[in-house]
Structure formats: structure tokens, C-alpha cells
Known about the structure:
Elements: H1 2-15, H2 31-45, E1 52-54, E2 66-69, E3 73-76, H3 78-82, E4 89-95, E5 100-106, E6 114-115, E7 117-120, E8 123-126, E9 128-130, H4 132-142, E10 149-153, E11 155-159, E12 162-168, E13 172-175, E14 179-180, E15 187-188, E16 203-205, H5 206-212, H6 224-231
Amino acid sequence: MENTQLWMNGLNQQKRPITQQPVPVQFGLSREEQLEVKRLAEEANFSFEGYQVVRREFISHRFDPAMTIRGNSITFNNSCISKLENASYIQFLINPTEQKMIIRPCDEGARDAIRWCILKADKRKSRQITCKIFAERLYEMMGWDPVYRYRLQGMKIRYNNEQMYLFDLNAHECFLPQKKDAATGKVKAAAAKFPQDWQSSFGMKVAEHDMSTQVNFLDGYISPNDTEQTEGSDE
């Protein structure tokens, strides 16, 4: 019996990856105790190294907060609007270097305030924000194809005790214009097209993913109005 146990221990040592600490075979343990031994072994050797955070664009996200950008307008879905508490006006903030956009709630009379919803029966509903110049500049900055419309998923974050949305302009889905079926007259849903570099991975590495949500307003964020003033200056 002792020789058999030694042989089994040796076999388990050969099969186990070198990077993990050996887990001795435990005899006389209940199933729950054996699972606990395995859990402790996994916990002792765990690391986020090599893991990727799967992009939510690869999974159904119909009811998640989202923004759609077209060649002459920007629209936020009702989920996005309803989850930003009672905000009726917002400001756009752009970081051209990191290619990120912030949607920050503001008062109606604030400078560069933009109404992003309409009040209907005490509820806030989505509205189309006409912004041809701003949208064209976004397309130019990102190198987007003007034929497509682009949809981006918003991430609700808190900065200096203020809630806002963060949009990574590089993390987008693009769609061709919708067309009606000639036979039925119904609008055909366009299939999403993802960035080419998404084809080789499931998502960002964990460390990179954690860094992507960090925001510093002192580092590169400007409003569209600031951009116009800079380009129109005499300097």
C-alpha cells in the first residue's frame, strides 16, 4: 500500500506543470476537503498574467449605455441617459491623444452646455444632437469611414465625487446604413464590424484594462469649444 501511494505521488508530480507548487495526494479526505485543497493550491499560484478581459462588444449589450456617432449627429440611448441620474445637460470633453471622450453633466446655464435629452411625461428620453462640425472632426481624428455609423459603449465612472461617462473612441462597432428589404419593406439590421486589431484577441490584458479607466482632467482633455478657439487664435 505504501509503495502504491509513493508511485501515485510520483505520477502526479510528472503530470503537474512546473510553474505550479506540487499538491500532495490526500487520502481519506472527503470530496469537499479535496476541493478545498485544490482551491488553496490555485489561490497560492494565481496571477492575472496572461489573462484578457473579454470585450463586452463581443457579448449582447443591447440595454447597456451607448452612444452612436454619425456624420452629422450624436445620439445617446435611453439607458445611457437614465443611468446618469437627473442630468438634462452635458458637456463633451475630448482627449485627442488618448482618443477618449467624457460626457460630464452640467447645469443648463453652464458654458458649452448641450441638451442631450428631452423631458416627456416626467421621463428623460433620447434626442438626436445635430453637430455636423464636431462629428466631422471626430471622424477625421479617428480616421473613420464616413459611410459607417459608429456605436460606443459607455463606462460610468466617478471623478472628484462627480459621476460621468467615459467612452474609448477606439473601442467601437461600426455599421453600414440601414436598408429596407425590397420584398417585405422591413428595415434590415446591419451586422456590426469591429476594429481589425480585435481579431487576434479577446480583449485587453488585465493591467492595461485597469489603466484604461483612469482619468486625469489635467492631462489633455479639452472641450470642442476649446478646440475652435485654439484653431481660430492669432498665435
